[in-house]
Amino acid sequence: MIPVEKIPQVTVTFSNPTVNGNPIKNASAFAIYPDGVPDYANATAVSGALVIRVDEEVANRTKRRVRLLPAE
Q1: Domain range spanning residue 65?
Q2: pTM here?
Q3: Which pairs with CB-CB distance under 8 Å and at least 24 residues apart come from 14-22?
Q4: Total tally of structural domains belonging to the chain
C-alpha cells in the first residue's frame, strides 16, 4: 500500500461519452468509495463529463456510493 503522504496529486477528466461521435443516451456513472481505503479521491460530474481529483483528504465522507450521471 502506498503511504498516504506519497499519494500522487492528479486530476483526470473523462469527457462526455460518445460512440461514433454520437452522444450516449441515458449514460450513467457512479463513484464508489470503498471502506478501508484512504479518502483522498473525489469524483464529480461537470457538464456531463466526469472529473476525478486525487489530492487532499476528504474528511468525514458519509456516502460510499454516489450517483454522478445522470445527476441526482
Answers
A1: 4-69
A2: 0.80
A3: 14/49, 14/50, 14/51, 14/52, 15/49, 16/47, 16/48, 16/49
A4: 1
